[in-house]
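Worked example 3 (structure in, sequence out).
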């Protein structure tokens, strides 16, 4: 089976800026849940943009064995889903149902299949019964769930997420964590929340200044106080030595 995501010696620079990615190499197997950790501006979001073909740099990116090129864009979109940091950028239709159905409809699927996928996705994220709600009437946690449902209705193999727990209260964060842990898809999650990363992912990739600094089991990487401090991060509470 091909890798879910393969990034080889990939570099990207924003115009008129020193920020971006510098010779990043990353291999993700199908079924893995991987946390991309690092300080703000480290390159985590840029890496997700590159994987989703929103920016183009130098090097190789393959998704489910396919080169991330314009020729393969449609097939890659069927394998890869992207949850943006701000749900309001992903929810733009009059109702929740229409938002979640938008992707399958644009695949040209039959109406009954679109409805089946939409209702299945809403049930998975706990929003069954809210089909006719306007997205702007949802809470922050419900908006996040709806944004995830818009991706699940496409039935991708791989999902990327950028700071998915931002602005959530503790209950909504716990609900989101439970949902994400239950998903069978490969997950790449960029986050500055080390407790969230440790609870969700078995693997952590530390990125800073556009480079991969460390890559390994989440508990091993995030328990290294010297490493975490050197890159502006904190050891998760669950891994801290008792006082």
């Amino acid at each position: 089976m091909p890798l879910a995501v393969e990034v080889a010696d990939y570099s990207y620079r924003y115009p008129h800026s020193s920020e971006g990615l510098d010779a990043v190499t990353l291999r993700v197997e199908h079924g893995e849940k991987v946390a991309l950790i690092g300080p703000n501006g480290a390159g985590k979001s840029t890496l997700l943009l590159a994987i989703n073909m929103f920016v183009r740099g130098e090097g190789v990116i393959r998704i489910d064995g396919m080169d991330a090129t314009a020729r393969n864009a449609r097939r890659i979109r069927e394998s890869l889903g992207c949850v943006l940091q701000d749900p309001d950028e992903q929810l733009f239709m009059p109702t929740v149902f229409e938002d979640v159905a938008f992707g399958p409809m644009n695949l040209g699927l039959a109406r009954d299949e679109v409805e089946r996928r939409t209702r299945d996705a809403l049930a998975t994220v706990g929003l069954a019964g809210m089909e006719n709600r306007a997205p702007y009437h949802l809470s922050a946690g419900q908006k996040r769930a709806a944004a995830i449902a818009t991706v699940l209705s496409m039935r991708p193999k791989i999902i990327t997420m950028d700071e998915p727990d931002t602005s959530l209260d503790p209950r909504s964060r716990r609900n989101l964590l439970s949902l994400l842990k239950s998903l069978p898809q490969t997950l790449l999650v960029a986050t500055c929340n080390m407790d969230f990363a440790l609870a969700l992912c078995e693997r952590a990739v530390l990125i800073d200044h556009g480079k991969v600094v460390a890559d390994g089991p989440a508990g091993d990487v995030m328990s290294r106080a010297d490493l975490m401090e050197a890159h502006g991060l904190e050891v998760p509470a669950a891994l801290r030595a008792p006082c």
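Notes: Residues 111-124 form the longest helix (14 residues). The chain has a mean pLDDT of 94.
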